[in-house]
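for the recovery benchmark. tokens below, seq after
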């Protein structure tokens, strides 16, 4: 298979790259070239047919699109694109981000996905998959994660529309909403993360969603149910509850 993965240099993206390495042709994108370069060597040892790495900040849309055009020229058919690159501002600031910070989060977590896909979609075939890594944080917005939740909720809306748009071409759009998974992103959090999964537990569920073509897969289930129940209660009560949540220091 020809597989493109963004945010391959660490965390979830790196583990997915390892999982999909054997017998596949991988295109890996992220900013840290040294990490991609050492990963590439490892993936060849794991049995990858080929590994191409691209150093790019996905919010540099012009550079990203030059790369995707180059890949599309080389590969008439692409089997899977995993849009995984993402950032969070963390929860240590007061939540009211500067415009610059909010724009960066929206650019990386949301707009980059369309910049990535625009020139690649014509190379997708029947049965090709687009995997969009969103978050359970897209369902409910904490005051300290306005930028992150907004960007991921926009991604859900995008996924929903794209899925219907591409259905006649039998191209699958898989939107995945994980809760907390251990990774360099969550290692920075200094509060309790309910139901946090180990990296391997998280990856296992993501692969399950991909291989079973789940349209919108939310996990862990217990955390999703709690968040969903919160979204059903009246806004006035919910807002009071959210405001009352204290961030426990580790
Ligand atoms: N871990 C969780 O609990 C969790 C939960 C829900 C959703 N998610 C989502 O899962 C995805 C992966 O997160 P993770 O936990 O694996 O975090 P991570 O370890 O921090 O990895 C993030 C990846 O995205 C890349 N990236 C970040 N900004 C980029 C940019 N501007 N341009 C190109 N690449 C960029 C990073 O590579 P470089 O730094 O080399 O660029 C890195 O490879 C994210 O979309 C995140 O929102 C994570």
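predicted aa per position
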């Amino acid at each position: 298979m020809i597989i493109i993965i963004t945010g391959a240099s660490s965390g979830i993206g790196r583990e997915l790259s390892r999982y999909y390495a054997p017998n596949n042709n991988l295109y890996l994108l992220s900013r840290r070239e040294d990490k991609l370069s050492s990963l590439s060597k490892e993936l060849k040892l794991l049995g990858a047919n080929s590994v191409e790495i691209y150093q790019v900040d996905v919010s540099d849309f012009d550079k990203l699109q030059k790369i995707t055009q180059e890949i599309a020229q080389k590969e008439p058919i692409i089997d899977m694109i995993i849009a995984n690159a993402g950032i969070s501002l963390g929860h240590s600031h007061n939540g009211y981000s500067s415009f610059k910070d909010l724009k960066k989060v929206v650019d990386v977590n949301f707009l980059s996905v369309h910049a990535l896909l625009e020139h690649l979609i014509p190379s997708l075939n029947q049965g090709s998959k687009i995997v969009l890594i969103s978050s359970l944080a897209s369902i409910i917005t904490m005051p300290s994660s306005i930028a992150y939740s907004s960007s991921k909720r926009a991604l859900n809306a995008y996924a929903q529309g794209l899925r219907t748009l591409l259905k006649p071409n039998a191209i699958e759009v898989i939107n995945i909403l994980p809760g907390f998974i251990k990774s360099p992103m969550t290692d920075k959090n200094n509060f309790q993360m309910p139901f946090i999964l180990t990296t391997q537990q998280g990856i296992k569920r993501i692969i399950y969603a991909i291989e079973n073509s789940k349209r919108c897969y939310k996990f862990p289930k217990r955390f999703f149910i709690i968040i969903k129940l919160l979204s059903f209660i009246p806004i006035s009560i919910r807002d009071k509850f959210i405001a009352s949540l204290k961030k426990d220091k580790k």
